[in-house]
Amino acid sequence: MLVRIIKLAKKTATIILTRNTYGRRYLLRRALKLGQHHVHPIDAYYNIRTSGFIPNFLNDPGSNIVKIATRENNHYAGCQPSCLRKALQSLPDTSEFVFYDYGCGMGRALATASEFAFRELIGIELSEELCTIAVENAQRIADSFPERARISVKQGDAIAVELHGDNLVIFMYHSFGRATLTSILNKLEKLAKDGRDIFVIFENPVNGDLLEQSTQFGRWYAEQVPCDAEEISHHSDADDGFVVWRSINAITADRSAYNKFEIVITKPTWRAEVVRSD
């Protein structure tokens, strides 16, 4: 217990020192520059910028030290596109669905989702700096692939965002802590009760038990997905767990084949894996 308190105190002290606007922006620019030394394959393919790792206290422009220290907003590290594609392939026709990326960072998941037939793609990001990069990336994809769905990026708190469209796909890459995710889930449950068809895609579902307990969402798909070989050097692990839930009002087909799994926490607060039992 004492060790945890000391670690939290050190982390909080670091965060406080970076609350100076100029200091935070300097460190953020430095982290972004370092990220370009190891360019992810999707960046090279689309000529975009999504590489790097940004600590959560550099992402959050506010002064809520407790929120940052307790990891209610998590670090930025882009998803692995090969893994996300596998989860998106589990969905039915999504041409009438709006794709939302909660905590979109620089927009790597948005770029990946643009390869699929969505009505619209929307990213929500707290950091003004990461939003700016995500907007630039979205424009580059629009210029190169004008036939794809439009990508837009909004700066703001994911809890406060208004969701538009009757059919929604919500993507999260372990972006939030339990309190924030609970607030988001409460909103999604209300929308599901109102009859909206909603998929929730959770990559690295550390807090997936909150969705498992929901009375408005049922299991749709689950798998521990291996990364493509070219992506492994850009990730701390060789695979990622994915679970997809769908609002129960829209589940008509038998999805029992996807019910036999557990979400196992392998690194507390940081990593979850999907363990199949069939």
Q: Can you offer a commentary on this structure?
A:
- The protein is an alpha/beta fold and 278 residues long.
- It folds into two domains: 2-69, no CATH class; 76-276, Vaccinia Virus protein VP39 (Rossmann fold), CATH 3.40.50.
- 35% of the residues lie in helices and 24% in strands.
- It has helices at 2-17, 21-35, 41-46, 56-59, 65-69, 81-88, 108-113, 128-144, 178-193, 209-212, and strands at 53-54, 76-77, 98-102, 120-125, 151-155, 167-173, 197-203, 217-226, 239-247, 261-267, 271-276.
- The strands form three sheets. A seven-stranded mixed β-sheet has the order 5-4-3-6-7-9-8, sandwiched between helices. A two-stranded antiparallel ribbon has the order 1-2. Strands 10-11 form a two-stranded antiparallel ribbon.
- The protein is globular and about 55 Å long.
- The model has no long low-confidence stretch (mean pLDDT 87).
